[in-house]
Design brief:
This protein is α+β, with helices and mostly antiparallel strands. The chain contains six helices and six strands; from the N terminus they run H-H-H-E-E-H-E-H-E-E-H-E. The strands form two sheets. A four-stranded antiparallel β-sheet has the order 4-5-3-6, covered by helices on one side. A two-stranded antiparallel ribbon has the order 1-2.
Length: 198
């Protein structure tokens, strides 16, 4: 038993510094005269705890990096400026930034229809192709999810195919969202090169 602990300690000392620290913490936590099994269990607990801490720190670093990248873009786009008071820097919205914030809030508050439910399978294929402007991204995302729920499959970024019967309510929703002008819906009766799809 004593030889096993010494071997473990020597192995750990020969490896990364973090493992030696973990072993020391486990050794101290296990207490004087602890069995090799108890020491192993304590070491596993310490390693798991360190892994969680490391993961949390990595997440914080990524979030901090994302924040700084976003702040840089906002400054570059003229949406915020840095103001320094009493040696502390803080971001302030510009006129352009306030306008952008109002537009984003308006888009976020826009209520979108419920997603349609999958209907019965059609005898023919239906292709849905669309080209929705970037400033209507929320609506475009809604459309993609609606098509997915209807059983359509994306074959290109804005081209979907499926054998679902398109519900009347879905078409009404497209008109209500003022998307109809950006969308084409085709029914095809011959498979042609689509034979591999199903």
């Amino acid at each position: 038993m004593k030889g096993e602990m010494m071997l473990k300690l020597l192995e750990i000392c020969g490896s990364a510094a973090g493992e030696a620290t973990d072993f020391l913490e486990a050794f101290l936590n296990a207490g004087y005269g602890a069995s090799y099994g108890k020491l192993e269990r304590e070491l596993a607990r310490v390693k798991q705890s360190r892994a969680k801490r490391d993961a949390m720190n990595a997440t914080r670093r990524r979030m901090r990096q994302r924040y700084h990248s976003m702040a840089f873009r906002l400054k570059k786009d003229g949406l915020i400026v840095e103001q320094t008071e009493h040696g502390r820097s803080r971001p302030l919205l510009t006129k352009k930034g306030r306008e952008k914030m109002r537009n984003l809030a308006k888009r976020q508050s826009m209520s979108l229809p419920e997603f349609p439910r999958r209907t019965e399978t059609a005898a023919v294929y239906t292709i849905v192709a669309f080209d929705i402007p970037e400033d209507q991204r929320l609506k475009r995302d809604w459309l993609r999810e609606a098509l997915r729920r209807l059983g359509f499959t994306m074959i290109q970024k804005s081209v979907w195919i499926g054998r679902a019967i398109v519900p009347r309510q879905f078409l009404d929703d497209l008109h209500a969202l003022q998307l109809a002008e950006y969308i084409e819906i085709f029914e095809i009766s011959k498979k042609g090169s689509l034979a591999h799809i199903e």
